[in-house]
Design brief:
single chain; alpha/beta; 2 domains; about 30% helix; about 15% strand
Protein backbone atom coordinates (compact mmCIF):
# COMPACT_ATOMS: atom_id res chain seq x y z
CA UNK A 1 0.00 0.00 0.00
CA UNK A 2 1.32 3.43 -0.95
CA UNK A 3 2.23 5.78 1.88
CA UNK A 4 0.07 8.84 2.30
CA UNK A 5 1.85 12.05 1.23
CA UNK A 6 2.77 14.44 4.01
CA UNK A 7 -0.06 16.88 4.65
CA UNK A 8 0.56 20.62 4.87
CA UNK A 9 -2.28 22.12 6.90
CA UNK A 10 -3.18 25.34 5.09
CA UNK A 11 -5.54 26.29 7.93
CA UNK A 12 -2.53 26.54 10.25
CA UNK A 13 -0.29 29.61 9.95
CA UNK A 14 3.04 27.84 9.44
CA UNK A 15 1.57 25.33 6.99
CA UNK A 16 -0.10 28.07 4.96
CA UNK A 17 3.12 30.11 4.77
CA UNK A 18 5.13 27.06 3.70
CA UNK A 19 2.58 26.19 1.02
CA UNK A 20 2.39 29.77 -0.26
CA UNK A 21 6.19 29.94 -0.53
CA UNK A 22 6.22 26.62 -2.38
CA UNK A 23 3.86 28.12 -4.97
CA UNK A 24 5.84 31.36 -5.21
CA UNK A 25 8.95 29.29 -5.95
CA UNK A 26 7.23 27.63 -8.90
CA UNK A 27 6.12 24.49 -7.09
CA UNK A 28 2.92 22.53 -7.64
CA UNK A 29 0.39 21.88 -4.88
CA UNK A 30 -2.77 19.86 -4.42
CA UNK A 31 -5.45 22.19 -3.06
CA UNK A 32 -9.08 21.75 -2.05
CA UNK A 33 -11.74 23.86 -3.76
CA UNK A 34 -15.54 23.94 -3.60
CA UNK A 35 -15.59 21.12 -6.19
CA UNK A 36 -12.82 18.55 -6.75
CA UNK A 37 -9.23 19.00 -5.50
CA UNK A 38 -6.86 20.47 -8.04
CA UNK A 39 -3.20 20.56 -8.95
CA UNK A 40 -2.14 24.20 -8.74
CA UNK A 41 0.78 26.31 -9.91
CA UNK A 42 1.20 30.07 -9.85
CA UNK A 43 0.06 31.57 -13.15
CA UNK A 44 3.06 33.91 -13.13
CA UNK A 45 5.70 31.16 -13.05
CA UNK A 46 7.78 30.86 -16.21
CA UNK A 47 6.75 27.71 -18.07
CA UNK A 48 3.76 27.17 -15.76
CA UNK A 49 1.59 25.49 -18.41
CA UNK A 50 4.32 23.00 -19.39
CA UNK A 51 5.17 22.20 -15.76
CA UNK A 52 1.55 21.54 -14.86
CA UNK A 53 0.97 19.45 -17.98
CA UNK A 54 4.05 17.35 -17.24
CA UNK A 55 2.92 16.77 -13.66
CA UNK A 56 -0.56 15.70 -14.72
CA UNK A 57 0.74 13.75 -17.71
CA UNK A 58 -1.57 15.60 -20.10
CA UNK A 59 -1.24 17.09 -23.57
CA UNK A 60 0.35 20.57 -23.23
CA UNK A 61 -2.31 21.85 -25.65
CA UNK A 62 -5.10 20.91 -23.25
CA UNK A 63 -6.15 24.13 -21.49
CA UNK A 64 -6.13 24.69 -17.74
CA UNK A 65 -8.38 27.05 -15.82
CA UNK A 66 -7.31 30.19 -14.03
CA UNK A 67 -8.37 30.06 -10.37
CA UNK A 68 -8.78 33.56 -8.98
CA UNK A 69 -8.08 34.86 -5.49
CA UNK A 70 -11.05 37.18 -5.01
CA UNK A 71 -13.89 38.90 -6.87
CA UNK A 72 -11.87 42.06 -7.44
CA UNK A 73 -9.40 40.03 -9.50
CA UNK A 74 -12.21 38.83 -11.73
CA UNK A 75 -13.33 42.42 -12.31
CA UNK A 76 -9.76 43.45 -13.15
CA UNK A 77 -9.25 40.60 -15.61
CA UNK A 78 -12.56 41.23 -17.39
CA UNK A 79 -12.72 45.03 -17.29
CA UNK A 80 -14.98 45.59 -20.32
CA UNK A 81 -17.39 42.66 -20.68
CA UNK A 82 -20.21 42.82 -23.22
CA UNK A 83 -23.55 44.06 -21.83
CA UNK A 84 -25.08 41.78 -19.22
CA UNK A 85 -22.07 39.50 -18.76
CA UNK A 86 -20.67 41.18 -15.64
CA UNK A 87 -23.99 40.87 -13.83
CA UNK A 88 -24.23 37.21 -14.89
CA UNK A 89 -20.66 36.44 -13.77
CA UNK A 90 -21.28 38.11 -10.42
CA UNK A 91 -24.27 35.77 -9.89
CA UNK A 92 -22.29 32.63 -10.74
CA UNK A 93 -18.97 33.40 -9.05
CA UNK A 94 -17.82 32.68 -6.39
CA UNK A 95 -19.29 29.25 -6.94
CA UNK A 96 -18.84 25.86 -8.60
CA UNK A 97 -18.52 27.21 -12.15
CA UNK A 98 -15.78 27.41 -14.73
CA UNK A 99 -16.60 30.21 -17.16
CA UNK A 100 -14.71 30.10 -20.46
CA UNK A 101 -14.35 33.45 -22.24
CA UNK A 102 -12.66 34.44 -25.51
CA UNK A 103 -9.05 35.45 -24.93
CA UNK A 104 -9.77 38.95 -26.29
CA UNK A 105 -12.21 39.62 -23.44
CA UNK A 106 -9.67 38.88 -20.69
CA UNK A 107 -6.88 41.32 -19.77
CA UNK A 108 -4.13 38.82 -18.94
CA UNK A 109 -0.74 40.30 -18.01
CA UNK A 110 1.65 40.29 -20.97
CA UNK A 111 4.24 38.33 -18.97
CA UNK A 112 1.95 35.33 -18.49
CA UNK A 113 2.16 32.44 -20.90
CA UNK A 114 -1.28 31.70 -22.32
CA UNK A 115 -1.18 29.48 -25.41
CA UNK A 116 -4.94 28.99 -25.71
CA UNK A 117 -7.58 31.05 -27.57
CA UNK A 118 -9.92 31.10 -24.56
CA UNK A 119 -9.58 31.62 -20.81
CA UNK A 120 -11.34 29.45 -18.23
CA UNK A 121 -12.03 31.41 -15.03
CA UNK A 122 -12.84 29.90 -11.63
CA UNK A 123 -13.51 31.60 -8.32
CA UNK A 124 -14.21 28.85 -5.77
CA UNK A 125 -16.55 29.72 -2.93
CA UNK A 126 -14.73 27.59 -0.32
CA UNK A 127 -13.74 29.90 2.59
CA UNK A 128 -10.50 27.98 3.21
CA UNK A 129 -9.45 28.39 -0.41
CA UNK A 130 -10.22 32.12 -0.44
CA UNK A 131 -8.44 32.69 2.87
CA UNK A 132 -5.33 30.86 1.66
CA UNK A 133 -5.23 32.58 -1.75
CA UNK A 134 -5.52 36.02 -0.14
CA UNK A 135 -1.88 35.51 0.87
CA UNK A 136 -0.74 34.94 -2.72
CA UNK A 137 0.38 37.59 -5.19
CA UNK A 138 -0.96 35.83 -8.29
CA UNK A 139 -3.89 33.59 -9.25
CA UNK A 140 -3.35 29.88 -9.88
CA UNK A 141 -3.46 27.66 -12.91
CA UNK A 142 -5.28 24.50 -11.86
CA UNK A 143 -6.38 21.15 -13.20
CA UNK A 144 -8.02 18.12 -11.63
CA UNK A 145 -5.80 15.44 -10.03
CA UNK A 146 -6.27 12.40 -12.23
CA UNK A 147 -4.91 10.72 -15.34
CA UNK A 148 -6.06 12.59 -18.46
CA UNK A 149 -9.58 11.63 -19.47
CA UNK A 150 -10.28 9.80 -16.22
CA UNK A 151 -12.54 10.81 -13.29
CA UNK A 152 -10.98 12.74 -10.40
CA UNK A 153 -9.14 10.59 -7.87
CA UNK A 154 -9.88 10.30 -4.14
CA UNK A 155 -8.44 8.69 -1.03
CA UNK A 156 -5.98 5.85 -1.51
CA UNK A 157 -6.20 6.04 -5.32
CA UNK A 158 -5.17 9.68 -5.17
CA UNK A 159 -2.42 8.89 -2.66
CA UNK A 160 -1.01 6.25 -4.99
CA UNK A 161 -1.10 8.68 -7.92
CA UNK A 162 0.65 11.37 -5.86
CA UNK A 163 3.34 8.94 -4.75
CA UNK A 164 4.67 9.13 -8.30
CA UNK A 165 4.73 12.93 -8.02
CA UNK A 166 6.75 13.76 -4.91
CA UNK A 167 7.19 17.35 -6.14
CA UNK A 168 3.53 18.05 -5.30
CA UNK A 169 2.86 19.69 -1.93
CA UNK A 170 -0.39 18.28 -0.54
CA UNK A 171 -2.92 20.40 1.35
CA UNK A 172 -5.80 17.90 1.14
CA UNK A 173 -6.42 15.40 3.93
CA UNK A 174 -6.76 12.24 1.86
CA UNK A 175 -8.06 10.25 4.86
CA UNK A 176 -11.05 12.56 5.31
CA UNK A 177 -11.82 13.56 1.75
CA UNK A 178 -15.39 13.69 0.48
CA UNK A 179 -16.09 12.99 -3.17
CA UNK A 180 -17.47 15.97 -5.04
CA UNK A 181 -18.76 16.92 -8.47
CA UNK A 182 -16.57 18.75 -10.95
CA UNK A 183 -17.42 22.35 -11.73
CA UNK A 184 -20.11 23.25 -14.22
CA UNK A 185 -18.44 24.58 -17.38
CA UNK A 186 -20.10 27.36 -19.38
CA UNK A 187 -18.30 28.73 -22.45
CA UNK A 188 -19.10 31.93 -24.32
CA UNK A 189 -18.01 31.70 -27.96
CA UNK A 190 -19.66 34.24 -27.91
CA UNK A 191 -22.98 32.40 -27.53
CA UNK A 192 -23.24 30.41 -24.28
CA UNK A 193 -22.60 26.67 -24.38
CA UNK A 194 -22.95 24.23 -21.50
CA UNK A 195 -19.85 22.03 -21.80
CA UNK A 196 -20.26 20.19 -18.51
CA UNK A 197 -23.06 20.05 -15.97
CA UNK A 198 -26.84 20.00 -15.98
CA UNK A 199 -27.87 23.66 -15.69
CA UNK A 200 -31.09 24.68 -17.41
CA UNK A 201 -30.44 26.53 -20.69
CA UNK A 202 -32.18 29.65 -19.43
CA UNK A 203 -29.67 30.05 -16.60
CA UNK A 204 -26.81 30.39 -19.08
CA UNK A 205 -28.16 33.55 -20.69
CA UNK A 206 -26.84 36.91 -19.43
CA UNK A 207 -29.27 39.15 -21.32
CA UNK A 208 -32.38 41.03 -20.23
CA UNK A 209 -35.92 41.21 -21.53
CA UNK A 210 -36.35 44.89 -22.42
CA UNK A 211 -39.52 46.69 -23.49
CA UNK A 212 -39.15 50.16 -25.04
CA UNK A 213 -42.23 52.38 -24.71
CA UNK A 214 -43.39 55.62 -26.31
CA UNK A 215 -46.88 56.93 -27.05
CA UNK A 216 -48.00 55.59 -30.43
CA UNK A 217 -45.32 52.91 -31.00
CA UNK A 218 -44.81 54.21 -34.53
CA UNK A 219 -41.99 56.77 -34.20
CA UNK A 220 -39.60 56.67 -31.24
CA UNK A 221 -39.93 53.22 -29.64
CA UNK A 222 -39.68 51.07 -32.81
CA UNK A 223 -36.64 53.06 -33.92
CA UNK A 224 -35.09 52.85 -30.44
CA UNK A 225 -35.70 49.09 -30.16
CA UNK A 226 -34.12 48.43 -33.57
CA UNK A 227 -31.11 50.59 -32.74
CA UNK A 228 -30.72 48.96 -29.34
CA UNK A 229 -30.81 45.47 -30.85
CA UNK A 230 -28.18 46.47 -33.42
CA UNK A 231 -25.84 47.91 -30.78
CA UNK A 232 -26.25 44.93 -28.46
CA UNK A 233 -25.47 42.55 -31.31
CA UNK A 234 -22.36 44.55 -32.22
CA UNK A 235 -21.18 44.57 -28.60
CA UNK A 236 -21.44 40.77 -28.42
CA UNK A 237 -20.15 40.15 -31.93
CA UNK A 238 -23.29 38.31 -33.03
CA UNK A 239 -26.10 38.85 -35.52
CA UNK A 240 -29.21 40.56 -34.19
CA UNK A 241 -31.12 37.32 -34.77
CA UNK A 242 -28.81 35.57 -32.28
CA UNK A 243 -29.51 37.92 -29.38
CA UNK A 244 -32.25 35.66 -28.00
CA UNK A 245 -29.66 32.91 -27.53
CA UNK A 246 -27.93 35.31 -25.13
CA UNK A 247 -31.19 36.14 -23.36
CA UNK A 248 -31.50 39.59 -24.93
CA UNK A 249 -35.05 40.34 -26.04
CA UNK A 250 -35.85 43.92 -27.07
CA UNK A 251 -39.41 44.80 -28.10
CA UNK A 252 -41.50 47.96 -28.21
CA UNK A 253 -45.01 49.15 -27.40
CA UNK A 254 -47.01 52.35 -26.97
CA UNK A 255 -49.21 53.72 -24.21
CA UNK A 256 -51.77 54.95 -26.76
CA UNK A 257 -50.86 52.74 -29.69
CA UNK A 258 -53.36 51.73 -32.36
CA UNK A 259 -52.61 48.04 -32.79
CA UNK A 260 -51.00 46.96 -36.06
CA UNK A 261 -50.14 50.46 -37.25
CA UNK A 262 -46.87 50.55 -39.25
CA UNK A 263 -43.85 52.61 -38.29
CA UNK A 264 -44.02 56.22 -39.41
CA UNK A 265 -42.41 57.16 -42.70
CA UNK A 266 -39.96 59.44 -40.90
CA UNK A 267 -38.77 56.67 -38.59
CA UNK A 268 -38.46 54.21 -41.46
CA UNK A 269 -36.41 56.74 -43.44
CA UNK A 270 -33.94 57.60 -40.67
CA UNK A 271 -33.66 53.92 -39.73
CA UNK A 272 -32.82 53.03 -43.33
CA UNK A 273 -30.11 55.70 -43.31
CA UNK A 274 -28.23 53.64 -40.71
CA UNK A 275 -29.01 50.26 -42.26
CA UNK A 276 -32.08 49.30 -40.22
CA UNK A 277 -35.40 48.13 -41.63
CA UNK A 278 -38.65 48.96 -39.82
CA UNK A 279 -40.86 47.69 -42.63
CA UNK A 280 -42.15 44.73 -40.64
CA UNK A 281 -42.94 46.71 -37.50
CA UNK A 282 -46.53 46.78 -36.29
CA UNK A 283 -47.62 48.83 -33.29
CA UNK A 284 -48.80 47.19 -30.06
CA UNK A 285 -50.60 48.73 -27.12
CA UNK A 286 -48.72 48.55 -23.85
CA UNK A 287 -51.57 46.62 -22.21
CA UNK A 288 -51.11 43.75 -24.68
CA UNK A 289 -47.51 43.02 -23.67
CA UNK A 290 -47.11 44.09 -20.04
CA UNK A 291 -47.53 40.58 -18.68
CA UNK A 292 -44.70 39.08 -20.72
CA UNK A 293 -42.04 39.14 -18.00
CA UNK A 294 -39.97 42.21 -18.83
CA UNK A 295 -36.86 42.77 -16.73
CA UNK A 296 -37.10 46.49 -17.42
CA UNK A 297 -39.36 48.88 -19.34
CA UNK A 298 -37.61 51.89 -20.85
CA UNK A 299 -39.83 54.92 -21.31
CA UNK A 300 -39.19 57.88 -23.60
CA UNK A 301 -40.66 60.21 -21.01
CA UNK A 302 -42.17 60.40 -17.53
CA UNK A 303 -45.70 60.01 -18.91
CA UNK A 304 -44.82 56.57 -20.28
CA UNK A 305 -43.32 55.34 -17.03
CA UNK A 306 -46.38 56.62 -15.15
CA UNK A 307 -48.51 54.09 -17.05
CA UNK A 308 -46.63 51.10 -15.61
CA UNK A 309 -47.98 49.02 -12.73
CA UNK A 310 -46.07 49.35 -9.49
CA UNK A 311 -44.62 45.85 -9.77
CA UNK A 312 -43.02 46.54 -13.15
CA UNK A 313 -39.52 48.03 -13.11
CA UNK A 314 -39.33 51.10 -15.31
CA UNK A 315 -36.51 53.47 -16.23
CA UNK A 316 -35.93 56.44 -18.49
CA UNK A 317 -34.51 55.39 -21.85
CA UNK A 318 -32.11 58.30 -21.44
CA UNK A 319 -30.17 57.63 -18.24
CA UNK A 320 -29.93 61.38 -17.60
CA UNK A 321 -33.72 61.59 -17.39
CA UNK A 322 -34.08 63.70 -20.53
CA UNK A 323 -37.18 63.01 -22.60
CA UNK A 324 -36.63 61.96 -26.20
CA UNK A 325 -38.67 64.50 -28.12
CA UNK A 326 -41.54 63.07 -30.18
CA UNK A 327 -40.90 63.77 -33.89
CA UNK A 328 -44.47 62.84 -34.87
CA UNK A 329 -45.81 65.24 -37.49
CA UNK A 330 -42.45 66.89 -38.07
CA UNK A 331 -39.98 66.83 -40.92
CA UNK A 332 -37.12 64.40 -41.39
CA UNK A 333 -34.83 66.72 -39.44
CA UNK A 334 -36.84 66.11 -36.27
CA UNK A 335 -36.62 62.36 -36.83
CA UNK A 336 -32.87 62.59 -37.28
CA UNK A 337 -32.59 64.62 -34.09
CA UNK A 338 -34.56 61.94 -32.24
CA UNK A 339 -32.30 59.26 -33.73
CA UNK A 340 -29.16 61.08 -32.57
CA UNK A 341 -30.60 61.45 -29.06
CA UNK A 342 -31.46 57.74 -29.02
CA UNK A 343 -27.95 56.82 -30.19
CA UNK A 344 -26.34 58.79 -27.37
CA UNK A 345 -28.71 57.27 -24.83
CA UNK A 346 -28.04 53.74 -26.11
CA UNK A 347 -24.29 54.20 -25.82
CA UNK A 348 -24.64 55.26 -22.19
CA UNK A 349 -27.09 52.46 -21.40
CA UNK A 350 -24.81 49.79 -22.88
CA UNK A 351 -21.98 51.14 -20.75
CA UNK A 352 -24.24 50.86 -17.69
CA UNK A 353 -25.23 47.28 -18.59
CA UNK A 354 -21.54 46.40 -18.90
CA UNK A 355 -20.57 47.62 -15.41
CA UNK A 356 -19.78 45.21 -12.61
CA UNK A 357 -22.40 45.29 -9.84
Amino acid sequence: MAAKPQLLDWNEHAGARQLQQHLRDGGIALLATDTVPGLAISAAVEGATALLAACKGSDPQRPFSLHLRHAAEMRALVPAPPPGLARWLARKLPGPYTVVLPRAWVALPAAWEWPWPAVGLRLPAAPEYLRFCAGLEQPLLMTSANPPGQPPLYGQALASWLEQRPQVAVAVDLDHQDEASASTVVAFDPLPQLRRGSDEPGTLKPGLRVLVVCSGNTCRSPLAAAMLRAELAASWGVAAEQLAALGWVVESAGTYAMDDSPASEGSMQVAAEIGLDLGQHRARHLARVLGQGWDVVLGMGANHLAMLPRAQKGEWFDLDGDEVADPFGGGVGRYRAAREHLQQAIEERLKAWSLWP
